[in-house]
Amino acid sequence: MPRHNVVVILSDEHAAEVLGVEGHRVARTPNLDRLAARGTRFTRAYTPSPICVPARAAFATGRPVHAIGYWDNANAYDGRVRGWGHVLQDHGVRVEAIGKLHYRAAEDPTGFDAEHLAMHIVNGQGMVWGLVRNPLPVFQRQAAGMLRPIGPGTSKYNLYDVAVADRAIAWLNEAPTDQPFVLFVGLVAPHFPLTVPPEWLALYPPETLPRPRLHPSTGYRRHPWVEDMHVSQPVDDSLNDEERQLALACYLGLVSYLDHQVGRILDALAASPHAQTTRIVYSSDHGDNMGTRGLWGKCVLYEESARVPLIVAGPGVPAGRVSTTPMNLTDARASLLAALDVVDEAPDPDGRDWFAAASAPDDPARLVLSEYHAVGSRTGAFLLADARYKYIHYVGHPPELFDLEQDPGETRSVADDEPYRAVRDAMAAALHQRLDPEAVSARALADQAQMIEHYGGPERALTLGAPGASPVPI
Asked: Which pLDDT does position 245 carry in this prediction?
């Protein structure tokens, strides 16, 4: 097989629906739309966990969160579990990273020859306060400030993304053509704070935007597990109607700002000596609720939070194709090793090569997994989805089932509807064949309890860690 270099661009908190090619009514993403037009877009791609650190550990290793034990934002990837970077290094492939990784520390052997402008968890600790889950605290201070400042301006995150794109452009211009490479580029937008340069915010007048869907003020009732999430992190309660609209406008503005940085990198690659030998992957670590159900940020398993954009392009990738084959960020391992024609030392039997899938018939029956064991939840939650149905198992609570073909907005669970009971039971059985949800949830809580004691007990743990967004390294 021919070898192809790969540039992986991973943003942070980009909901899959917020793309022009997804049919979003107002989102302006001309560069990502252009990438999709010359590549293949997967419409059923999911994060392995809808929160940064576990998602990125699973992405690095190609393993689900329960298999590697990086449960939350205080337990970051440290190279202890070998990932695709290590395997590529063993085969003489240059592997470097620019930008946000959100691993434990720069000195850890995480599979990169070099890390440029790397962002990791704070002090190797991350969100220690988020470890405390039983009893579930109310994080009022963190919730009230999570999105702020909301409005026009230039944040350190905005400046960081420009610096990351600049470094990626320089790297592509300087990289030798006689050594294969994988370049990982981590951009932060559209992650909060919801501060966006004015010219990008001007694209989205707040008064023209639709109000967030399924807001409890309209009569919508959250699932009990999700209600716990809101009670613990009552972000929406700190916003009035005007601020909600401004927050949504800022999020959209940050997506367009992100799209601009991606476009700069794509243009540099097209003008470089690597244009004809390099494949591209664009995705995000998870999505964002954008006020839907009165929720902001991520942390739940609905489409806004758990589904991610996934576009692949370059040599051998069909142009303009849209695939419904379900995909997962854990598939990065199989995809990157195959692109470099490297045999995996420990292949995941559930892994799927994105580039091969782009040329293959759709496989709508493929099942993909996502799970959550972090801040704001008393117990674990698990998502299993094919191209039509999504089953969510909440430990200690009733499950949900959604028919995404009939109800793409997940407005009502059909788990108890007679016509869907066979589907519900089949999905539940398939999940239990993969793992024991109750046992996995208990193991996560036990590991977290041990970490809490390491930090001096719950009261001490609640005082430790960044309040939400990690600081930039520049």
From this structure: 98
Distances (CA, A) of 104 to 29, 74, 110, 121, 205: 32, 9, 9, 6, 39
Contact 74, 126 (CB under 8 A): yes
Strands, E assignment, 263-353: 278-284, 310-313, 321-323, 327-328
Q: Which amino acid is at 199?
A: E
First to last CA, the chain: 41
Count CA atoms closer than 13 A to 175's CA, side-chain side: 28
173/238 Cα distance (integer angstroms): 46
H or E, element range at 421: helix 421-434
Q: Which amino acid type is present at position 206?
A: P
* 295 vs 214: CA distance, rounded Å: 10
Phi, psi of 99 (to 5 degrees): 100, -155
Name the residue with tokens 């932060």. Answer: 188
Tokens, residue 188: 């932060």
Distance CA(227)–CA(40), nearest Å, equals: 37
CA 53 to chain centre: 9
Encoding tokens for residue 427? 């999905």
Average pLDDT per 10 consecutive residues for the chain, totaling 474 residues: 93 98 97 98 98 98 98 97 98 98 97 97 94 95 94 98 98 96 98 98 97 96 98 96 98 98 98 97 98 98 98 98 98 98 93 98 98 98 98 98 98 98 98 98 98 97 87 80
* DSSP class per residue in 63-102: S-HHHHT--STTS---SSS--HHHHHHHTT-EEEEEEE--
What is the β-pairing status of strands 400-403 and 151-152?
unpaired
**Integer CA distances (angstroms), 294 to 9, 210, 237, 403, in order:** 30, 14, 8, 22
Tokens of 74: 């205080």
Token pair, residue 428, equals 């539940």
- In sequence order, the β-bridge partners of residue 307 are 46
CB 348 within 8 A of CB 48: no
Specify the amino acid at residue 346.
Answer: A
CATH 3.40.50.2000 fits 5-461, yes or no: no
